[in-house]
Design brief:
Elements lengths: L5 E4 L9 H15 L8 H7 L5 H11 L10 H21 L9 H11 L2 E5 L4 H11 L10 E3 L12 H10 L6 E5 L2 H9 L4 E5 L14 E3 L11 E3 L10 H6 L10
Parallel strand pairs: 1-2, 1-4, 2-3, 4-5, 5-6
Antiparallel strand pairs: 6-7
The chain binds xylulose-1,5-bisphosphate and magnesium ion.
The site of xylulose-1,5-bisphosphate has 16 residues, from helix 1.
Length: about 260
């Protein structure tokens, strides 16, 4: 395998468990502000997550779960405004420190910095949300640790399309064989794999644990800390119970078995 030169992180679900208690709550607050009685429960939100992108998710909700809603003439503008309000609520929640980084994330990021491995982000979420999460969980200025941030509408086709990973690797001038992608969802793995990335590390969460990760290299419950080893859900044993740079440099990219 080629030497790993960069780590590419998904954000929601991977850096932090943001969907249930961050994005979902922010959507509901924006709906309430607008006088809408829409309530995205924990269970409904899990189903809505099949569609990536907040604006796209609102439209999917109206098309499939709330067809009786009388749509304004400018539906796109209405959705954009709702989503803008949702982003404000989300960044407020992050500023309050509502969601921590997942175990092992900071450790691995700091090890990459210490060993000269480059860092980047490849996410579907809005850029302000990335700034807010990094700003509330890492030291001041840490956003600059990430050389490239691919986020939101910078590519029109969101995950599971490969475009965001392709865009980030082009900005880094790196071939897929030189990077590792970190993901939490089936859509994220499809996006990374279709962009040609072979080394894909999945850390599942409550919403994604049952998804198909057949194209991932390893599936874990978390990246692991010295006092809290990662559990391997699919794939070969993980030395020391932690994903670290030594392990990433020698990991076997072979995909795990295809069943979830
Ligand atoms: C997850 C997404 C996003 C978030 C909401 O992105 O699909 O849409 O749920 O954020 P990823 P926005 O896992 O790729 O980080 O409302 O800003 O879209
Ligand atoms: Mg994700």
């Amino acid at each position: 395998m080629s030497v790993v030169e960069a780590l590419l992180f998904d954000v929601d679900g991977t850096l932090a468990d943001t969907e249930r208690d961050g994005h979902r709550v922010a959507f509901n607050r924006a709906f309430a502000d607008a006088g809408l009685d829409w309530d995205w429960t924990v269970e409904l939100y899990g189903r809505l997550l099949t569609v990536t992108g907040g604006k796209e998710r609102i439209r999917h909700y109206l098309d499939n779960y709330n067809r009786e809603f009388v749509r304004p003439d400018d539906l796109a503008g209405f959705i954009s405004e709702l989503h803008r309000a949702k982003t404000a609520h989300y960044t407020d929640l992050m500023a309050e420190g509502a969601i921590p980084l997942r175990p092992g994330v900071r450790r691995l990021i700091e090890q990459a910095r210490a060993t000269g491995v480059r860092l980047a982000i490849a996410t579907t979420t809005t850029p302000e949300n990335v700034n807010a999460l990094i700003g509330s969980t890492l030291p001041a200025g840490a956003i600059d640790w990430f050389e490239v941030i691919g986020a939101g509408d910078i590519v029109p086709a969101k995950k599971p399309a490969p475009d965001i990973y392709t865009w980030v690797m082009r900005e880094l001038s790196l071939a897929p064989a030189r990077v590792v992608a970190f993901e939490d969802s089936g859509h994220g793995v499809t996006s990374a794999a279709d962009a040609g990335i072979e080394r894909i590390v999945v850390t599942v969460n409550g919403y994604t644990a049952e998804q198909d990760f057949g194209r991932a290299s390893i599936v874990l419950d978390q990246l692991g800390e010295p006092d809290s080893p990662a559990q391997v859900l699919h794939g070969d044993a993980l030395e020391h119970g932690m994903v670290d740079l030594d392990w990433l440099q020698q990991m076997d990219a072979a995909a795990v078995a295809s069943e979830p």
